[in-house]
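Run: sequence + iron/sulfur cluster -> complex structure.
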Amino acid sequence: MPFFTISKTILRSLFGRPATLMYPAVPREYVEGSRGHIEIAVESCSFCSLCQRKCPTEALSVDRETKIWKIDRLRCIACNFCAEACPKKCLSMATGYSPAVTSPGETEEHHA
Ligand code: SF4
Ligand code: SF4
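>> structure
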């Protein structure tokens, strides 16, 4: 890399705004219209399992007996297909951060 190109890069890095944020102290603002994560209003859920059957990545699991709705956040690709299919309209795509997942296969549970 020629000397002047390197100097320009160094100066920009020294005096420019950082490209990263001090997350979680400073959360990034989501761009309008961007997809975030699936949320459920579980009190409206009928546990029909339609979302589970429609999910292309098998991220959802619904148990009608125990009235538990689960999502594996690491499998979810935020395609919104489940929300479009839900007859009760209790699924929605929310912007913002979802709770952190610490190990593969970990699920987030919602009880009625
Ligand atoms: S499709 Fe909707 S109502 Fe049916 S189980 Fe899924 S979230 Fe609940
Ligand atoms: S957004 Fe797509 S991948 Fe994620 S749970 Fe819904 S259907 Fe599955």
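>> summary
The longest helix spans residues 3-15. The domain at 31-111 is CATH 3.30.70.3270 (Alpha-Beta Plaits).
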